[in-house]
Structure formats: structure tokens, C-alpha cells
Amino acid sequence: MLKLPNTPISIFTVMSKMANDYQAINLSQGFPNFPIDVRMTEIVARLAKTDIHQYAPMAGYPPLLEKIAQITSDHYHRKVNPSTEILITAGATEAIFATIQAFVQPQDEVIILDPSYDCYEMPILLSNAKPIRISLKEDYSSDFEAISQHLSTKTRMLILNNPHNPSGKIWTENDFIQLEKIIENYPDLLILSDEVYEFITFENKHISINTREKLKDRSLIVSSFGKTLHLTGWKIGYLIAPENLVKEVKKVHQYLVFSVNSLAQASINEYLNVFHIEEVSKLYHQKRDFFQNLLKETAFELLPCEGTYFQTASFQNISDENDIDFTKRLVTEFGVATIPLSVFYGNQTDLKRIRFCFAKDDEMLMKAAERLLIIK
Fold first, then answer.
1. What residue segments make up the domains of the chain, in order of their start?
2. pTM (predicted TM-score)
3. Is the alpha carbon torsion for 227, 228, 232, 236 positive or negative?
4. Under CATH, domain 11-30+277-373 is a member of which superfamily?
5. Which top CATH class is 53-271?
6. Where in the numbering of this chain does the Aminotransferase class I/classII large domain appear (predicted)?
7. What does the alpha-carbon distance between residue 40 and residue 311 come to, in Å, rounded to a whole number?
């Protein structure tokens, strides 16, 4: 008996393969194509010659845990214990998987807000639990009435993604007030807050659950050095939660990966002595504006992008095709790979929208825009 018989190959794998097969410009998968900071490569080269190659402690490299605690204090004014309230993980995906495995029991329900990233549902199904997928509104704001209607004593967890992939939407103060109100009668409900793009926001500042007094003691917050430091291939993330929650996730983590790459952790720890996290939003703010300016003469309708390095666009004035067929034609006929948004919905909602990744160098973005300009 197969556990995941209906699980297809990820759309990110499909589109990246198509981009390679057709020599298309790949704006689909979310990773930067520009070099990492030379200061980081120098740190890695130097540390690689030291005695740093054996297992790191299960919970993480202690100096890096201290750095994360300081970052959390500096940005969110939350004091966390580095030895008991932080866990270094093999990317944010492992943090999400381990958290769901640690707390979700068979027959539990877990709320996912669609469109949603594809790594949320699988660990729920592997727990023999039930994913409850609730669509966001068309402007990607949360439908708190629908969420409230689906809450019950069976609801074990609510998964949030803020800043939101794929839409680039960020939560407001009012959003959190509404959330706090509707879950106050469900004390056993946990929040899994995916905040991997927390340092990539633009006009408005990211509001983290780290700052919410009514929520943080029942929340597990996931962050990503891969996203923040442009090191997606290193797969280094971390989890922040109260000690009683982190303790349970560690039980899964120790048998899933045990510990995370020691050289990578030590290198990130040292790099944070010279790198200022505020630089990240400035970089991507410039790239967002540059890319939006390039696309303003195209037939695409650009939706607001408040955070992340993704730009969502509507093609409803271009074609009546479904979004999967349209994105495939973009690759084969125009040489640009993107992601259709219907794949982020449990019911494959098709709003005639696609997602571009603008975490690319200016030359690649300009070449892609030239090809997109001819689409009518």
C-alpha cells in the first residue's frame, strides 16, 4: 500500500526541467542566480581548513544559536533562550516537516491557507491527519470568517505563511487582531508560522508572530538563512518556539537528520559579524521596482508585491488558456519559465495568474522582459 499514491512531481521540478530542455530563461523556481557575497566565500574557504567537519550539536552550533537569539531580540524585541528555544534545521522544509510530525496525530485537522507552498500538505497526510484547505480572498487577504467556520476541537494546527509565497502579501496588524480573536477559544491549537521571507519586505515592515504576546507561546516560527543570505542550496533554516514545543520537535529532528551541516553553520555564524540583515530588503526592493518597470509595457497585469522575491501577474487579457497550459506555452514559444498559481490550491483554482521570481541578475530580467513584451 502506497502512502502518497496521488502525489505528482512538483511543479517546480517540471518547470525547471522544461526551462532546461527549451533553453528558456528560468523565472520559475525561487532561487537567486547571482553570486553570493565574496566575504562568505572567503569565510567558507578559510573555515574549511579548520577542524569543523564533524557532527555539530543536535540542536545547532552554539555560537550560531546565540546569533539567532540576538537577531530575534534586535528585530522583534523577543528574548529567547538559545539553548532551549531555537533549533537549527536542514532548511525550512525540515523544520515544517518535523513540526507537523511532532504534534499532529491521526484524525487531527490542520488548516492550510491557499494558495500555499507544496511542502505543507505531505507531512499532514503522512501523519494520517486531514488537511483543511481554505482559500484566501482574490487579493490574497485572509478570509477569517471561513477560517472561523472550520475551527473545531479537531483543529490541531493552523499554518500561516507571512510574507506570503506566491502572492507577496504581508499580514497587517488588523489581521493578527482578528486571528487572535477567533482562536482564543481553542487553547490546544498550535500555529506553524512560515516566515522565511521575513527580511524581504518593502513599503511596510513585516510583523512577526515573535511580536505577538497572545500568539507566541503557542506558535512555532520557521525562518531561513537560505532565503535571507541567498544561500538556498545550503538548506539551513531554524525554528523558534517555547521550550516545551521545541523539545518535541527535537525528538523528530534527531532521528530525521540528527544535526545540520557543521561547516555551513560555522560560516553563517561568522558571516553575520560582517553582514547586516537590513541589506536584504534594500536589494530586493530595487529588484522588484526594476522588474515591475520592465514589465509595465507588457500585456500582463501586475498584482501588488509587498514582500518576498516573487511577482504575481494576471494574463487574463492575453489568453483564455488555463494557467498550466499558458505557462508551458510561455516556455516553448517565448522562452520564459514561470509558475502557474493553480498548483498552489488544493482545488486547483485558476485565476489566470502566474508567478515570476525576480531574484535574478539585471541581465536575466531584461532578457526575460524583452521576450514577454512580444506577447499580446
1. 11-30+277-373, 53-271
2. 0.96
3. negative
4. Aspartate Aminotransferase, domain 1 (3.90.1150.10)
5. alpha beta
6. 24-372
7. 28
